[in-house]
Amino acid sequence: MKKRSKAFLEVGFYLSKFGVINENDKYPSPPIRLKVHKWNDAYRVFYEKIHGDRTVLAFERSLKNTRDAFDSHFPNSKRIGWLSDNKSPHPLGKDMQAVFDSFINKSEEEVWIAIQKYADLKVKEYKQTYDDLISIQESEAEYIIGTTEGGKKVTTSYSYERKPSLRSDAVKIHGLECVVCGFNFEAFYGDWGKGFIEVHHIQPLSENKGQEIETNPKTDLTVLCANCHRMVHRKKKITLSIEELKKKIRKK
Hints:
The strands form two sheets. The protein has a three-stranded antiparallel sheet. Strands 3-5 form a two-stranded antiparallel ribbon. Strand 1 and strand 2 form a beta hairpin. The protein has 13 helices and five strands. The protein is about 40% helix and about 10% strand.
């Protein structure tokens, strides 16, 4: 687990202590100053400055966990937070305790002044950018489970794509032209692009049956240009089939 910076912990404290508590709501909303209504958007306000090389989704989970750890120390927060076995607030770690002691008697304005340099309040304008970034980051994970547009369940494995022997075999079998659009890096970039292509792996879950099976570079791997590879994974939890992507091409 990545170490949470002091800034990360300070933001977690702010989100925990200054969430908006409305009488009729089961849970509090994000602090008013952030100008968002969803907690994921509240986390993303701080992503660019303090992500610490986390993906967007990993950052959201980690910041939520940090907020949760502080929650039990604010009995009026409407959130239970993390509790010890005896139902008392779970002890904070050394770094979290230092942030808690430093901020506990400060007003919302004072804490905001301390953390505002980490915030981007225009985050709602970047929704599509975040959606695309999440798709890219998720597509680079070791395994992705999703469906095609037609609803067929697939698992995409990037661990196989990164194996030099399998990549080499796939290129020998499928060549260096994108199987969707025909793009050839050498033809476009000359020697700089010679020998380059991205390798894509799709294996139907129905054939896996929960067991790791041997990858066949002829049937399980194919080659795509960078553009088509990104478009295959453009939408979260949807992995287009090669034929589905071919049908989307408008410019011949």
